[in-house]
Amino acid sequence: MALNLDLSFLTADVVKANLLPGLYYSLQLTVVTMVCGVVLGTLVALMRLSSRPWLQRIAAVYVDTLRSIPLLMVILWFYLLIPAGFYSFIAGGYGLAHRPEFSAVITFTIFEAAYYSEIMRAGIQSVPRGQVYAGYAVGMTYSQCMRLVVLPQAFRNMLPVLLTQTIVLFQDTSLVYAIGAYDFLKGFLTAGQIYNRPDEVLLPAAACYFVISFSLSMLVRRLQARIQIIR
Amino acid sequence: MSAWEQMRESATLMCKSTVDETVYSGCFAGKGDLTYLQWLLHSWGWTLVVALVALVIALVLGLVIGVMRTLPNKAAVLFGEAWTEFFRNIPILIQLLIWYHIVPEVVTPLKAVSPVVLACIGLGLFTSARIGQQVKAGIATIPKGQRYAGLAMGMTLTQTYRFVLLPVALRVVLPTLTSESMNIIKNSSVAYAIGVTEMIYFATQAGEETSFHSTMYLGVTILYFISAFAINRAAAVVEKRTRLHGALGGK
Question: How far is residue B226's CA from residue B78's CA, in Å, rounded to a whole number?
Fold first, then answer.
């Protein structure tokens, strides 16, 4: 079988029916994971930097465990372990009909939080100690000092790294392939199957992922140049 | 069923033949048969083979690409940068699917080749972009004066790289190369999508066959842990052995 590179079947209708819902899900997954993952990751980073050994240990086990197994394995684990009853709580029958999609959101949030927490930890440690002392000196409590002094600076310092990790995350969303969630890649594969170009359709898929990731990384680079000046 | 009984059943399952109902007492079947434990170990072997071969490809190409991006030659820099962006911005899953489904149609000799080889190439090129990035960053940390000093002493450009820049740059990037080697083990899991019988493939197949998904997943997860830990230790030894006196945390 030779390649049939006639991709004219990707008409506006096919794009609308097959690709856009997939792209929408991939972006949704990326954004939800980024927001929830950064919040959870920051909490884990604070635990890891806390003065209580048991909190430190819990955070370390969480991060080290997730960072030493492949995302694909984690996706499979969560898909297996989240009980079916859980999905029936989500939006009526909608959750049950979209099990892989919801499972992926939970998996990615928990998995990426481990990576984000390492970034936030580096960010928090990049804030000079004097800032913390100054906060305490003016009578702030620990939580005020973290919330008002340390975290804003840590977040700003680490913004480019957080965004770069998010681009990696966007690429990794294609791994939901393993549980059959309908993402951008699946959209392409489905269209390819319908119009009998199951292999060739990978090329436009690769091109789209490339364009999205590349332009996002260009934006991050520009942002980095813009916020670098503070010191 | 109590947790204890469940564990015992899982253990028995691993010693069972993959073909019939025989349970082997030593967990290892003789010739012509295979227990689930043996199958798991075989798949671990494939994971390691794919990861290690890909790592060698990635190190060699990554070094070349990283050096190219620092050469005083516009074309070389451009090529290195294009290479990096190309392999970095397409998800590894799509890259492997392309290596499996599309490349053999264009380069017909590859049709006869097993998916393991394609996975090694695909994963190797994907990782080479990332390693190249780090090698470039490592060379960039060396003060420019060292390069000029080398050249001023009459060394050729090759000699300057070989004797002045790379010995230091490679030591600088060693820690990131460690995490890259751990990544490559993790990324090799994607090769299951093109039919390489590595551990994820085992986990899904054996899980289907026996309906004991969690037992199989657990076995695989433990082996991933062991692999990551082994690389971590090995890297620590290499880092200690190659450390320079008076630099980079050395004595």
Answer: 40
Q: How many C-beta neighbours within 10 Å does residue B223 have?
A: 19
CATH of the domain at A48: 1.10.3720.10
**A–B CB contacts, 8 A cutoff, strictly below:** 94
Kindly state whether residue A205 falls inside one of the protein's structural domains.
Answer: yes
pTM of the predicted model as reported, rounded to 2 decimal places: 0.90
Q: Do B200 and A76 touch (CB under 8 A)?
A: yes
Structure confidence by residue, pLDDT tens digits, A5-23? 777 778 888 888 889 999 9
B22 — pLDDT class (breaks 50, 70, 90): confident
Say yes or no: A219 contacts chain B, CB-CB below 8 A: no
Contacts 24+ apart (CB under 8 A), B7-15: B10/B212, B10/B215, B10/B218, B13/B210, B13/B212, B13/B215, B14/B40, B14/B215, B14/B219
Min distance B203 CA to chain A CA atoms (Å): 9
- Confidence at residue A231, expressed as pLDDT on a 0 to 100 scale: 53
Neighbours of A139 (CB within 10 A): 8
Which residues face B16 on adjacent strands? B23
Residue A126 lies in a domain: yes
Residue of A3, A80, A174 lying closest to B217 (CB–CB)? A80
**B214: which chain A residues are within 8 Å (Cβ-Cβ)?**
80-81
pLDDT in tens, B205-244: 999 888 888 889 999 999 999 999 999 898 889 888 888 7
Q: Is the ipTM of this complex over 0.85?
A: yes
Q: How many domains does chain A have?
A: 1
Query: Is A214 in the B-facing interface, judged by CB distances under 8 Å?
Result: yes
Report yes or no on A6 lying in a domain. Answer: no
Q: Which residues pair with B23 in a beta bridge?
A: B16
Domain that holds residue A220: 12-230
- Measured at the CA of A112, the angle between CA A109 and CA A115, to 5 degrees, comes to 150
List, in order of start, the domains of chain B with CATH numbers.
36-242 (1.10.3720.10)
Given an 8 Å threshold on Cβ–Cβ distance, is B90 in contact with A177? no
For chain B, the average pLDDT equals 90
